[in-house]
């Protein structure tokens, strides 16, 4: 349904804006995670996907910004993820308090890992958080420039020529075509 101003000229409907500009990225919605939640995300992400000598841990490449933008988005899917993530972060911090008398971020790494191991292998509610969290860590990391480099993804680049299929691959293709009678 078009909305019109007094002169009858069409105007954009109210809302949060247009799709993101991928050339010069800008998020048109406010970030909504607290500093505590962001700190928890950084520590948890680094436990799930530790850094290596060559590649930084997720907290070192901006995973908290990815999470904050994702769960702050005004879309249904992301808002559903927000509910799971924020409730899960609160559960992790509460469990750390219950077991060790301190917040999760303040615990030593062995205690943090013990809580993550418990969450990853227990109840459905806890697992739902862990599965969603782990998925977002992997998506955020491996769709970043650092993640692309880690998996050897070079993207859509021009080739000087197309080398074609290797002889070994061609033999497999030919064998399968013969089996199909083609």
UniProtKB/TrEMBL annotation:
Span list, region Disordered: 1-24
Origin superkingdom: Bacteria
UniProt xrefs under Pfam families: Gluconate_2-dh3
InterPro entries for this protein: Gluconate_2DH_su3 (IPR027056)
Protein name (record): Lactose 3-dehydrogenase subunit gamma LacC
Gene this chain is encoded by: lacC
């Amino acid at each position: 349904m078009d909305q019109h101003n007094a002169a009858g000229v069409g105007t954009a409907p109210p809302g949060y804006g247009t799709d993101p500009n991928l050339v010069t990225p800008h998020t048109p919605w406010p970030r909504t995670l607290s500093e505590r939640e962001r700190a928890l995300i950084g520590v948890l992400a680094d436990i799930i996907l530790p850094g290596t000598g060559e590649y930084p841990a997720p907290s070192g490449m901006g995973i908290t910004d990815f999470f904050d933008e994702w769960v702050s988005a005004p879309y249904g899917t992301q808002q559903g993820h927000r509910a799971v993530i924020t409730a899960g972060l609160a559960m992790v911090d509460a469990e750390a308090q219950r077991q060790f008398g301190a917040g999760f971020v303040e615990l030593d790494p062995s205690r943090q890992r013990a809580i993550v191991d418990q969450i990853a292998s227990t109840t459905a509610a806890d697992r739902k958080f862990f599965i969603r969290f782990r998925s977002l860590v992997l998506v955020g990391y491996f769709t970043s420039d650092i993640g692309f480099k880690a998996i050897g993804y070079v993207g859509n680049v021009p080739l000087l020529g197309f080398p074609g299929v290797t002889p070994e691959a061609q033999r497999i293709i030919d064998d399968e075509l013969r089996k199909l009678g083609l």
